[in-house]
């Protein structure tokens, strides 16, 4: 299994190799992209329209049976599992594939219509699923929508924080993939042994790679710009176009030495992913320190035999952030987490945990 595209993708595969051509999800009708593995006795090879319950992902080729089900669906009021995150109408629900086997299988069958390669897709028992749900805050009586999900192996030897991610096609291009990736990094930062850092399961699909590269670029850019600052300082950065913000950036930590590993530890990212992000940001310049600038850190690091030195200017990172319309503060908020992941008072006031620095 590989993390797949949450944000963008190319044209659907040719229509001939897809058993289901279109799906009806709630009141939405849209095209499928790939073949799924629906049982042939229930879904024939050339199904033009498959009706899928937007709450439990049960399916039927029969519109009448589908309508009947939606009136009685057991998940009509609330998604299965427990809510682990909520912010501005969006919430994330965690469910165990072992306890919600049929749900997880039906979700997987539906997701496969939009995912290219999934080899062990139906081993739902060893996975946790995180549903991205939207409920209109202004209309609490309206039913919720599941917009996408990610799955995660319960026991991953490679410390993968995510196995598969999908934002359903009608909800793509709204930065929701980044929200799910951000939640996956937050959760893994809290549950991991501090020395064990992971990332999405490899290999990444081409589209997964693009989405993750951008997510990592944002993450590293935020760290470079904001680490050591508290969220209360956010107003300084709210309008980065203002020269005041640039001054603020220059003023603090005029010259600072850090290794790629330092950035990885602080952001919960693998070293290789930090390097991917730094390359993508195109903010790295060859280091040519003047005598005046040669710091104690620099001399110590040189003597310790560390590798190549480069310079990154915060102003260049800020330019990148502006031109890429990056939200300076992480859209995933610590205070949005519920239940076992809810922040404690010490988490909030601390400000020094690996992850809270960029939230
Ligand atoms: Zn249902």
From TrEMBL:
EC number annotated for this UniProt entry: 2.3.1.48
Superkingdom of origin: Eukaryota
Catalytic residues of the enzyme: 201 (proton donor/acceptor)
Chain intervals for the UniProt region annotation (Disordered): 334-359
Enzyme class per UniProt: transferase
Residue span, MYST-type HAT domain: 15-343
Protein name: histone acetyltransferase
Organism: Aspergillus saccharolyticus JOP 1030-1
């Amino acid at each position: 299994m590989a993390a797949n595209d949450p944000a963008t993708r190319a044209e659907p595969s040719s229509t001939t190799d897809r058993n289901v051509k279109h799906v009806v999800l709630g009141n939405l009708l849209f095209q499928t992209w790939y073949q799924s593995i629906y049982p042939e006795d229930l879904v024939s090879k050339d199904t033009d329209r498959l009706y899928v319950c937007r709450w439990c992902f049960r399916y039927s080729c029969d519109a009448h049976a589908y309508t009947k089900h939606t009136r009685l669906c057991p998940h009509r009021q609330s998604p299965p599992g427990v809510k682990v995150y909520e912010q501005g109408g969006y919430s994330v629900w965690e469910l165990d594939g072992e306890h919600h086997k049929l749900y997880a299988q039906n979700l997987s069958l539906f997701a496969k219509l939009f995912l290219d390669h999934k080899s062990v897709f139906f081993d739902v028992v060893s996975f946790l699923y995180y549903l991205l749900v939207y409920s209109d805050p202004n209309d609490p009586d309206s039913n919720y929508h599941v917009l996408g999900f990610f799955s995660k192996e319960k026991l991953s030897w490679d410390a993968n924080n995510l196995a598969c991610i999908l934002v359903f096609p009608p909800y793509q291009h709204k930065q929701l993939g980044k929200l799910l990736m951000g939640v996956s990094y937050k959760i893994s930062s809290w549950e991991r042994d501090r020395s064990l850092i992971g990332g999405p399961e490899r290999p990444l699909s081409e589209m997964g790679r693009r989405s993750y590269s951008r997510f990592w670029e944002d993450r590293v850019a935020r760290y470079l710009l904001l680490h050591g600052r508290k969220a209360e300082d956010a107003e300084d950065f709210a309008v980065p176009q203002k020269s005041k913000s640039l001054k603020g950036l220059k003023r603090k930590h005029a010259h600072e030495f850090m290794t790629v590993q330092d950035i990885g530890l602080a952001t919960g990212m693998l070293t290789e992913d930090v390097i991917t992000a730094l390359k993508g940001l195109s903010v790295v310049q060859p280091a040519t320190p003047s005598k005046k600038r040669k710091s104690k850190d620099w001399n110590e690091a040189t003597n310790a035999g560390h590798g190549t030195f480069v310079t990154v200017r915060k102003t260049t990172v800020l330019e990148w952030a502006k031109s890429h319309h990056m939200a300076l503060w992480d859209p995933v908020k610590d205070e949005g987490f519920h239940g076992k992941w809810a922040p404690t008072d010490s988490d909030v006031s601390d400000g020094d945990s690996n992850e809270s620095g960029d939230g």
